Amino acid sequence: MPRRPNISRQTRALLAALLDRYQVWRHGYELSKETGLRSGTLYPLLMRLNEQGLLESRWQESERPGLPPRHVYRLTASGQALAQEQEAAASATGRAGALA
Amino acid sequence: MTAARTGRWRRLAVRLVQYAAWFLPGAQSPWGDAMRRELDYITGDPAALRWALGCVLASCKARWTDRSWFSTRLAWRYAATSGVLTLLIGVALQENASGQTGPLRPQFDETACDVPNVSPDIQPRLHCGTVSVPRNYDNPAAGRFKLAVVIAKSEQQPALPEPVVYINGGPGSPLTIYAGYQARNPYAEGRDLILVDQRGIGRSEPGLCPDLGSKLLEADLAVAQSPSEAARSSRRAVYLACRDEAIDHGLDLRDFGTTVTVEDFEWVRRALGIARWNVYGESYGTTVAMTLVARHPDTVRAAVLDSLYPPDPIFRRSSKVAEARDAFFASCGRDDACAAAFPNLAGIYRETLDRLGPHPLTVAVPPSMHRPDDQVLLTASLFEVLVGRLIYYPTAYPSLPRLIAAVHDGDTKGLAAIFASELMQARELNRAAEVAVECRDRPGYRHPPAEGANPPDQVDSYGICDDWSELGPAPVIPIDTAVPILVLAGQFDPVAGPSLSREVTGRMGGNARWIEFPLIGHNVRHFSPCGAKIAADFIDNPPQALDTSCADRVAPIHFLTRQQTP
Known about the structure:
heterodimer; A: alpha+beta; 3 strands; disordered N terminus; B: alpha/beta; two-stranded antiparallel ribbon
């Protein structure tokens, strides 16, 4: 059974980054740079959000010929709802959504 | 940080991510691919290594999450231990894996010769082996390819000090499997002969979609028959599937092209301990040879360029084919027997195209072509492509006017053997290696054929390259080179006719000589004993004045009339 979202500080940062441009497919390294999350933290979060149906993923052709396709991610509708909920909660308590 | 050290860290990062992908639970394997591929986009080596280490940690976390009976504390220990172990294994393999220790050095590793069709008298003269070359000369950590190399020792021993390296055409044609034939037909007396399968071709690594040629048969035929957008799209899809397959196998399509091939030859030269060599380039091999002379002039004693294939910009293929075809038709007009049997051959040819347009003919083809009912529909565009192909070969010239006239009259029997021959050649050429090289070399292939382009352009690589790989460093002409050069040009060469060939030779300066061979197409030496002799004389003593009179004493073409049989 999928686990319930574990809303850690890192998860909130990732949700905020994904919500920021929720229509755009994002790749791992870009998310890592934007959130400050290292790959060792980022990928387990992505895997978990994906497992919980909050994140969708697909392979995207590289814009640079000769390079392999990349795995890209964006929030599902449920993921967007959760991210907005977290953002609202963070605003209510005066905390930044993104990782400081 | 030095370049070598930088490369080592990158290689370690690649290995760590590979281990991370391997370590993930099976259901999570797409995430392993995601981590591996992301690494290709990280440019700095420290960043790549940090990324890779994180991926190992991520895999360990995923692994212990998968094992629910572990307590959190135990799981963290498991993760940490696994991470450290994986790191140590990665480092150990990095340092000790077979052939991966330290920087790669040029070295010939001799192996048993498994070359086919070698007679007992030639066999003892062949020395076979491999030379490992860097995939990417700017990034030694990117790995290596093993190239197949054969040394055919001269009958005369001790041989003269500077051997001949023969660089064959294509790009995409195998060479070392023909070592027996090559050894029997030396390019110069008393000199050893070096044969190399260029990267991705023949018995050299990497295996690059080896069956693409067979897969393209259908698509090529469809485009040649009717160059519609749908036919071109289907053909393009076959190429792109190959591209994806190559990338899935971990290949970087930027690791191809004439410039890197030139460095391969230079690496092989060093591996064989050769101070200088004579270079014989043929067809696409002239592209490599010219670039080799330009980049490494001190290592080349002399170069023969047989049937030039100059770097871009060159005119579209169809214009060169038309030029050669018109010259051939004109030669028929000047021959009494041909002119009598086929008055106005050019007119007959045009009429044939006009007739085939609305009324294509059926050609019976060999079962090996796997065509429905063993038949092919001969359209005007397919016929134009076939005639363009036949202009390459002087052996086809005597019967070509008769063939055109026969098709004009609705008789296609003579085409079956031509289809069979084309099929054999199509299967031999590695089309993936061809496009991998051409797409790196030639900006002209970036753009699709123009609306209404002639059929020879439609079946060429135009429009494939934008999606294949980035444009690489261009091959070059050795302008005003000090290296003695001899250029052999066939009168009916449909790749670079005499005028273009002569113009390119002029740019190479006063040490470059140019000889035209009447009634010859592409690959002069193969079809002209005179050309072979002149080339051998030149290699024997490059500065000497050459006796080229045999080129003008060529026997006329014995054209077959409508009644004659060959």
